[in-house]
Amino acid sequence: MQAVATDFGITEALKALGVNDINNGTSTGANNFSSGEIIESYSPVDGQLIGKVKSTTKEDYEKVITTATEGFKTWRTMPAPQRGEIVRKFNDELRRLKEPLGKLVSYEMGKSYQEGLGEVQEMIDICDFAVGLSRQLHGLTMHSERPGHRMYEQYHPLGVVGIISAFNFPVAVWSWNTALAWVCGDACIWKGSEKTPLTSVACQNIAARVFSENGVPEGISCLITGDYTVGEMMTKDERIPLISATGSTRMGKIVAKEVAGRLGKTLLELGGNNAIIVTPDANIKNTVIGAVFGAVGTCGQRCTSTRRLIIHEDVYDKVKNAIVDAYKQIKIGNPLDENNHVGPLIDKDSVKNYQNALTKVVEEGGNILVEGGVLEGEGYESGCYVKPAIAEAENHFEIVQHETFAPILYIMKYKGDVSNALDLQNGVRQGLSSAIMTNNLREAERFLSVEGSDCGIANVNIGTSGAEIGGAFGGEKETGGGRESGSDAWKVYMRRQTNTINYTTELPLAQGIKFDL
Ligand code: NAD
Transmembrane ranges (predicted)? Predict the structure, then answer.
């Protein structure tokens, strides 16, 4: 590959992950039958070509689904704790390769190296969780109303699970799904984002190697590559009972309709429009840190990024000034350089969306507090580096109602009771993450109550961004309603069967119905 200006260990990382051959990133990706058009992966960090992969054709896809379906027949019969043992071995490899994989995530996607490492840590955490879960795929036992009968439920694997993921969490979202689906006994076919194809190949290489060394049938982890047309091969395919799709609400609406049309199941993790409510009792220092990290972390490209700050009028000026001051400290630049806080946006289309949103908010009557703009010159050659911006805006503005995947923070005032802030917070179509900063117990509990936040995630004295794998992750309304990762999210990857066993010599019917011959 071409040398990057300052390498930051990228060449070594690509080598360690087996994706160092620029012309053939897929060469070692087992179960990847791709033979179609070439996709080039350019880094938003420095604009360099990192590698090329081949996209999946219809014929390639047929081979993948056949291999996955065949592999599933063996995998489903292996005891779940033994499947857990395979996931444990896969996790050993993730631990060993954490730094190179974190680096590739940072270089291909543009998030800071610390966040790249954090993403791989999430993979490690969910695998640990899945290993324990492999001994806890419990059903319930119920009392039968009929004498001499036993009733219970059990969970069986679903089959082949299709995973469609977004560019902004190019590796973690795959593992949230696969680690659970694998211990549940499913085979997985993954279509990663066309914007981050090499991270997908790197992950597939790791899984394929571990699986092959441990006699796991080919097809339990499969990768298909390409744009939405490749995703559509799965959404239209009746052989795939569950599609787990992460991405924009626009995509989710199309996928939901397609899969529902064949009565398949979907797990949808879509866009957010997340707010922090700042009450008069908030700890201002923590509020500033939480809000700034939430708004500018990953360059505003997290589904949980803080987009709106709803501040009580009594502390409005104080919080506003503190945040505007904090923005002056933000360093923008190469995300592999740990001195920088903010890296680039994913590509120039995203830069355009960011610019359009800033124009729009002014047109709608907003007031820019921290100017945005595209950075140029040395270190910014990729054209994807932008300045995090802040605008005072009204919640009903069309642009505020919309998720712009960029570092733009809208701030607004509320008066009186916390219920007024909740009306604003809930007054958007999305329902992913939400937060309140307060030391007032009544306000905190009202925020969490049935009349409080309508989001899937509701935090007190923490920002909106970032979540632990132990809880179920996802959101309501246009965020899609799906839950993945911790808690009992595993149940979506299995089918529930209710079993009733009669151990008498009679045949009593339920509800006392008499039927004698
Ligand atoms: P995107 O919707 O453009 O693409 C996501 C994936 O869907 C890609 O792999 C793409 O190829 C595929 N796709 C698009 N249209 C499809 C179709 N019709 N059929 C099948 N597949 C299709 O999203 P993006 O720009 O990659 O990611 C950003 C979006 O993802 C944001 O809206 C963000 O909030 C959301 N996101 C949500 C979560 C969550 O957990 N809620 C997590 C990460 C990202």
Answer: none
For residue 53, give the 3-state DSSP assignment: strand
Residue 115 CA to ligand 1 centre (angstroms): 20
Q: Please state, in angstroms and rounded to a whole number, the distance separating the CA atoms of residues 334 and 342.
A: 8
Point out the catalytic residue in the list 269, 403, 443, 484. Answer: 269
- Alpha carbons 8 and 294: distance in angstroms, whole number: 26
Phi and psi for 115 in degrees, rounded to 5? -70, -30
pLDDT in tens, 411-425: 999 999 999 999 999
Q: What is the DSSP string of 305-322?
A: -EEEEEEETTTHHHHHHH
Rounded to the nearest angstrom, the gap between the alpha carbon of residue 121 and the centroid of all alpha carbons in its chain is 14
**pTM tops 0.90, yes or no:** yes
- For a mutational test of ligand 1's pocket, the pick from 126, 228, 347, i.e. the residue with the most ligand atoms closer than 8 A to its C-beta, is 228
Q: Is the CB of 435 under 6 A from ligand 1?
A: no
**Strands 408-414 and 389-392, bridge-based pairing:** parallel
| pLDDT value at residue 32 | 64
Rounded Cα–Cα distance for residues 481 and 305 (Å): 18
Helix (H, G, I), strand (E, B) or coil at 373: coil
Q: Catalytic annotation on 269?
A: yes
For 339-369, the pLDDT digits (tens) are: 999 999 999 999 999 999 999 999 999 999 9
First to last CA, the chain: 81
Q: What tokens does 199 get?
A: 């991270």
